[in-house]
Amino acid sequence: MKQLLLFLFFSIPVFSQKTTETFVSTQLGESRQITIGLPDSYEKNPNKKYPILVLLDGDYLFDPFYGALNYGAYWEDMPETIIVGINQNTNEERIDDSNYDDGNGLPSGKGANFFAFIGGELLPYIEKKYRVAPFRIIAGHDTTAGYLNFFLFKDYSVFNAYISLSPELVPEMDTRIPERFAALKQPLFYYQSTGDGDIKDILESVNKLDTNIKTANNPLINYKYDSFKGASHYSSVLHSIPNALYQIFDCYKPISMTEFSGKIVILPNDQTKYLTDKYDLITKTLGLKIPVRLSDFKAIEAAILKNKSYSELEKLAEIAGKNYPKSMLSDYELGLMYEKNGDAKRAAKSYQKASQLEEIGDLTKDMMMEKFDEMQSLTTKK
């Protein structure tokens, strides 16, 4: 059944949101085809905002990125993301778009126009037309992967994350990028990859860049380099995409069993602070405000109970009230705290109140009444 649901997920809702339109660019002096992928929830959640992923070589990178992002969003490992693919249908076109001056190593001619098109026309258009969060990613392959590095050299990078797949680096970029990283004062994600069967010149320049980046030593740069064994210049792309996305969206993931056992359950107290810090990081890093997942509530609750730090349940109830004000979750957590502290009378009152509110997750009205009856019986005995 799960396999069938996954098939329906990828076959119907995902691709119903994919559209191609013609963008008339003043900077390029021509029309350009762009493909836009909207998350399936876009129309259903009119107040929700989404990160943007701009894809160079959108004609062939769009579908693999779209599939990976939708798969990650299905399991809540990644946020739903708006994808904007710039179609570069011929190798000649993508080379022209990536043109640079041999003397100063900066975009020139069509390359300068393409740079202005992305930053000055395309991004403002997308951000005016769609509901976007203040988090932008750019990705490209070989020629375009080398080109996207030019955006690093603006005073303030318009992109928060870079995905560089087997890049053909502009001369001296193996030293210019690390120097830029050392000077940056904004948080930045940077991912690059190759395959061990990649083009020799690419392997040599990327390995040199990797060595030099490691000397930049800037804690604001979240950097990762993958070199895939047995992968070619083209097959490495499919290895790279999920790794890059999981690097960038790592903070977004729900609490895992590894995180629970290695970081949370070992805390003697302040389990709720761990929870609020986790969601504050999502907001700070990705510009997204999302309700605390029910699975994360349950993980923190389990850690509190295991450590018998029952006063933390009151703080958890406060968080529940802010995130799910119409549900029984907040009063349930209060009832649980009173119960564990031996105050059956107040526990009964909280469970009774919870029974009158909306059910949520595995918490039901019947369950609350059973808890109420149990606490009432303890009160009567006393």
TrEMBL record:
User: What Gene Ontology terms describe what this protein does at the molecular function level?
Assistant: kinase activity
Which controlled-vocabulary keywords does the entry list?
Answer: Kinase, TPR repeat, Transferase
Report the InterPro entries cross-referenced here: AB_hydrolase_fold, Esterase-like, Mycobacterial_A85_antigen, TPR-like_helical_dom_sf, TPR_rpt
Xref: PROSITE patterns: TPR
- The TPR repeat units are at 328-361
Q: Which Pfam families match?
A: Esterase
Work out whether the entry's keyword set contains Coiled coil: no
Record PANTHER family = ENTEROCHELIN ESTERASE-RELATED, FERRI-BACILLIBACTIN ESTERASE BESA
Q: What is this protein called?
A: Histidine kinase
